[in-house]
Design goal:
Oligomer: heterodimer
Distance between the termini of chain B: 45 Å
Helix content of chain A: 25-40%
Largest sheet of chain A: 4 strands, parallel
CATH topology of the largest domain in chain A: Rossmann fold
CATH architecture of the largest domain in chain B: Orthogonal Bundle
Number of helices of chain A: 13
Largest sheet of chain B: none
CATH superfamily of the largest domain in chain B: Alpha-helical ferredoxin
Order of helices and strands of chain A: EHEHEHHEHHEHEHHEHHEHH
Radius of gyration of chain B: 21 Å
Structural class of chain B: mainly alpha
Strand order of the largest sheet of chain A: 2-1-3-4
Number of domains of chain B: 2
Strand content of chain B: under 5%
Helix content of chain B: 55-70%
Number of helices of chain B: 12
Number of domains of chain A: 2
Chain lengths: 336, 198
């Protein structure tokens, strides 16, 4: 059994609950032992770094210090030096703090001075920070994953969406490529899915721009879902709660903004793993998405119980004759 | 060597270059920024998914830093539009930590109060306030405070989304607090002192 320290991240219990639930469901069949870091705190996402440097890195480093303490074989539980983060933003922040504290020893010294105020310390380089999909593809292995599949996803057309913060900047050279990594494609293929070639796989979902510059974010979301739609995808598979949140929860607003009617469900890759491993859709958080994956999953004979009737899509010619809005970048032809 | 006939070239040759702004930004950036290595190739701007909405591409901004144009740089919307996708970072032939430089410029603009649009700085500050209060992010508090302040007109259109998120248990109504909040506060207080002294 492989043991890892888990840094779940804030969204795993809230907006990305389906991710957290589905991870719990696949841990046991794959013989993984995830021990949560005690009393971990938020990594600061992309917000704290833009305000204060040393507090931002100290906030991140508290988690590393707690993890290092917990893995210590003398006074901790021992057994591993690998931290696994399922959220791409958390993964990047933890990996970045670890790397920069080594690259810039003066930063490492200041962060440790701050940690000392809380009775903690962290020697940069002690831990190995890795993303969940890295563990699944390279530690567990595709062979083992394939052997656990009881309900192959044959006929489900999936676009693999890696997002940006996972394969880049890649301080530890973990990925096959920075712009077109194939790890997610390979994993989905191992589940039997029909993986569609998706050139936008590492393009940005807009990140926090949905909150601060919605028009910019809507354009980035539109690019992703329109391309997935044109390629005939039933759904998108993602590895990051922020990507899922943006594409799922803001798809309605994006449609309103462009006058489009895309319906592109986006699920976590672990949810698809759970389905392929024969788990009940409820157990892996299917139904928590706002853009329902019900019809998409019907293609492979998975029946999702209806918890609430989805609102019927409004017909195009109903409602007041409002002018359609286009962004300054888009011609009318480009939007369907 | 060609003769220097152009007045402007001669003036440039005689002027002592002031790289203090460039150096300041470089020193304030996490890691080794490589900012002074920029060769103005423009790969960053060409790789950027949001360059179309930026007042200056990253390349232009770095030239402005070299030219000491402090106020113009800190007023630019460019750092605030950076989505931290790191496309420019992996393509930069000089390995400039472009995304981290953008974080530094945001911090400097907040400090100098030179940002022209308060939406992004307020969002960051509200997020940080929640984290400093609870040790975790608190989406409900963040969303309510931020949208009421900056996007009240977006709220009606967002009702179905907000309703869906709450009924599906994807947005907690109450915040979660870490156990050792005192420890985190002590760490952050000390870190802020160190930031001021550096």
């Amino acid at each position: 059994m492989n043991k890892y320290l888990l840094y779940p991240g804030c969204s795993m219990e809230s907006s990305g609950r389906a991710y957290g639930d589905s991870i719990k469901a696949i841990v046991e069949p794959l013989d993984l032992d995830f021990e949560e870091i005690n009393d971990w705190n938020c990594c600061g996402a992309t917000e704290y770094l833009g305000i204060n440097l040393i507090p931002a890195y100290s906030l991140i480093a508290r988690n590393l210090a707690l993890a290092a303490k917990q893995m210590n074989p003398v006074n901790g539980t021992g057994g591993t030096h690998t931290v696994v983060a399922p959220c791409s933003a958390c993964y990047l922040n933890l990996a970045k703090a670890d790397y920069y504290m080594q690259e810039r020893p003066s930063l490492g010294a200041k962060v440790n001075e701050a940690l000392n105020a809380g009775g903690l310390e962290y020697k940069a380089g002690t831990l190995d920070v890795r993303h969940l999909i890295d563990i699944l593809v390279y530690d567990v292995g595709l062979e083992k994953i394939r052997s656990k599949v009881v309900h192959p996803l044959n006929g489900l057309k999936v676009v693999p969406y890696m997002g940006c913060m996972l394969p880049r900047p890649d301080y530890q050279h973990r990925w096959t490529d920075h712009e077109h990594p194939t790890e997610l494609d390979d994993l989905l293929r191992a589940l039997g899915a029909d993986v569609i070639d998706y050139p936008l796989t590492t393009e940005c979902c807009g990140g926090h721009m949905t909150q601060i510059g919605p028009e910019t974010a809507f354009e980035l979301i539109r690019r992703l879902i329109s391309d997935a739609d044109e390629r005939g995808a039933h759904l998108m598979a993602t590895v990051c709660p922020m990507c899922q949140m943006n594409i799922d929860a803001y798809q309605h607003e994006t449609n309103q903004f462009f006058g489009t009617d895309y319906h592109m469900p986006v699920l976590f890759f672990t949810q698809l793993m759970g389905i392929a491993f024969g788990k009940h859709p409820d157990e892996v958080g299917i139904g928590l998405e706002l853009v329902s994956a019900r019809n998409a999953l019907a293609n492979i004979g998975i029946e999702v119980p209806v918890t609430q009737e989805p609102a019927a899509p409004r017909k195009k010619d109903e409602g007041l004759p409002m002018p359609r809005r286009w962004t300054k970048h888009e011609g009318k032809e480009a939007v369907r | 060597m060609p003769q220097m006939t152009d007045e402007r070239v001669r003036a440039g040759m005689n002027r002592e270059e002031d790289l203090s702004l460039l150096n300041e930004v470089s020193m304030k950036t996490a890691g080794v920024s490589h900012l002074e290595m920029c060769i103005q190739c423009g790969t960053c701007g060409g790789s950027c998914p949001v360059a179309m909405d930026m007042e200056h591409t990253p390349r232009m901004l770095f030239a402005m830093l070299r030219a000491g144009m402090r106020d113009e740089v800190l007023r630019s919307n460019t750092p605030w539009l950076c989505v931290s996708c790191y496309h420019c970072v992996v393509r930069c032939p000089q390995e400039v930590h472009i995304a981290d430089v953008m974080y530094t410029l945001k911090g400097m603009a907040i400090h100098a109060k030179l940002y022209t649009n308060a939406t992004a700085p307020h969002f960051s500050q509200t997020f940080v306030d929640m984290v400093e209060a609870y040790g975790r992010s608190y989406e409900m508090g963040l969303a309510t405070r931020h949208y009421l302040r900056h996007f009240p007109l977006r709220l009606p259109g967002m009702m179905p989304m907000g309703f869906g998120m709450i009924t599906k248990g994807r947005m907690a109504v109450m915040p979660k607090r870490i156990k050792q909040m005192d420890q985190l506060t002590a760490i952050l207080d000390r870190a802020k002192q160190l930031e001021l002294n550096s």
